[in-house]
Write a structure and sequence with these properties.
The chain contains 19 helices and 18 strands. It is globular, with a radius of gyration of 23 Å. A hairpin with a 2-residue loop joins strand 12 and strand 13. It is α+β, with helices and mostly antiparallel strands and about 475 residues long. The strands form five sheets. The protein has a five-stranded mixed β-sheet with strand order 2-1-5-3-4. Strands 8-9-14-10-11 form a five-stranded antiparallel β-sheet, with helices on one face. The chain starts with a strand and ends with a helix.
């Protein structure tokens, strides 16, 4: 398998399931990439993953602790050593000058996240720069210094005046990147980009952001099948189709999705950090079948359907998402099948849709309870209602009885109160580290009220439902 590592071409026969973090530190002695949480939570191991798209280099920040070697064939991996010289570059110097560097453990990942921001942003916005480092934890609590450095960088470099076509050249001219980046397109063109594995049987890997948290050591010894990285978001008539390989951050940034869901930019920030969203796929989140899977809950409330394809016969079948989850971590997917795409109906734009989530941390955390609702209303009559909830059953739950009860009803406080009571009968939460049974029941009730207040502001008030 061939790839570029900073300025060098690498040809390795190490296991495809070995994560890039271990390859860098153990095989290459590039210890600037830090080993810390190994869950994609802290950003200390952040690197850049580069590839040619339509003749232009594109880089995204990824957590190397969750990135298998099999995913980087024919691509460019950039570590902190790959952007550093004998003297600090202006980005590194800005962090030093603003006293944003203390113990230094988080600094390499921070520099890589900000380098990705400089490569991809369309404006010199301090707010966007802060968002770009949302997946980087500072153990010395030096966040104010980091924010000062970001404001300084955004004031010094007018990224809005730097086009996508010239961005790489501009960053090199400003000494934010070393000059060898000019030669990367030619070097990538000389590499073999063949996927690491074309075998039909083996552990299927999409983004791997949960798989390589749960069993990284076992994956070293197993045959892996890397699913195609095909991202598709299409609106055809009143139906939206999303390819299973679409990354969650691509979904969040999609113009099509923002047209349908104006709040999706903020909604999907609640799921995980930017680097994890850059790697995690929509299909992977569904197949993972977590009872609190955010995308599962989001899409259940749209009454989405799935297209499942056989990798052996190429046959395809369609099933409702609500029938996909068959028990705790059990799904309707055979060993020779893969999830191809997700589809849902869009009768209007924007959709009348609400997503809510409660977790111990507002951002980057697993939900205690999450919920979503979509509805259609005509002359105060609810003509279509779909409701989902996570963290209150063994599977991401579609609330059949509650949705059926509401459908065809005229909106009133009494009707909504009856629906709230019915929802309590449909759920069966268990106590765990994220809350007691009573707490989760209360959370779901409050989240459902939040949906109704958001979607029916002219028909119901908080006082009506207390």
């Amino acid at each position: 398998m061939q790839f570029l590592l900073n300025q060098r071409s690498i040809d390795t026969d190490r296991p495809e399931g070995m994560v890039v973090l271990d390859f860098l530190r153990q095989e290459q002695q590039l210890i600037g990439t830090r080993a810390a949480c190994r869950e994609g939570d802290c950003g200390a191991c952040l690197v850049l993953l580069g590839e040619l798209r339509h003749g232009r280099l594109h880089y995204r920040p990824v957590n190397s602790c969750l990135l298998p070697l099999g995913r980087i064939a024919g691509r460019h991996i950039v570590t902190i050593e790959g952007v550093s010289g004998h003297e600090p570059n202006p980005l590194q110097q800005a962090l030093v000058s603003a006293t944003a560097i203390q113990c230094g453990f988080c600094s390499p990942g921070l520099v890589m996240a900000l380098t990705a921001f400089l490569l991809n942003t369309q404006s010199s916005s301090p707010e966007e720069a802060i968002e770009a480092v949302s997946g980087n934890l500072c153990r010395c609590t030096g966040y104010m210094g980091i924010k000062r450095a970001l404001r300084d960088l955004c004031n010094r470099f007018d990224l809005g005046a730097s086009s996508k076509e010239n961005r790489l050249a501009d960053l090199i001219e400003w000494r934010l990147l070393p000059s060898y980046f000019n030669e990367i397109p030619q070097h990538l063109a000389e590499l073999d980009p063949t996927p690491a594995s074309n075998m039909r049987q083996g552990v299927k890997v999409a983004g791997g952001t949960d798989l390589f948290v749960q069993r990284p050591q076992q994956l070293l010894q197993q045959t892996l099948v890397f699913l195609p990285e095909q991202e598709t978001i299409e609106l055809q008539g009143n139906e939206c189709r999303i390819g299973a390989g679409t990354r969650i951050e691509t979904l969040r940034q999609s113009g099509v999705m923002r047209q349908l869901f104006p709040a999706i930019g903020e909604n999907l920030k609640l799921i995980c950090s930017t680097p994890v969203r850059q790697q995690a796929t929509v299909g992977g989140n569904l197949v993972n079948a977590s009872p609190i899977g955010d995308m599962s809950v989001f899409l259940l409330a749209l009454d989405a359907s799935l297209t499942i394809a056989s990798t052996a016969t190429l046959a395809r079948r369609d099933i409702p998402l609500r029938k996909f989850f068959q028990g705790y971590k059990r799904i309707d997917l055979q060993s020779d099948e893969k999830l191809a795409d997700i589809r849902f109906r869009c009768p209007e734009k924007p959709l009348r849709f609400s997503f809510e989530k409660v977790s111990k941390r507002t951002y980057l955390d697993i939900a205690s309870v999450n919920s979503a609702m979509s509805l259609e209303i005509k002359e105060r009559v609810l003509t279509k209602v779909h409701i989902s909830a996570g963290g209150v059953a063994a599977i991401p739950l579609y609330l059949h009885q509650t949705a059926e009860f509401l459908q065809g009803k005229s909106v009133s406080a009494d009707v909504i109160k009856q629906a709230l009571a019915l929802a309590q009968q449909e759920i069966s939460p268990i106590a765990d580290s994220r809350g007691s049974i009573a707490y989760k029941r209360l959370l779901l009730r409050q989240l459902l009220i939040a949906h109704f207040l958001k979607l029916l502001p002219d028909s119901v008030t908080w006082e009506d439902l207390r």
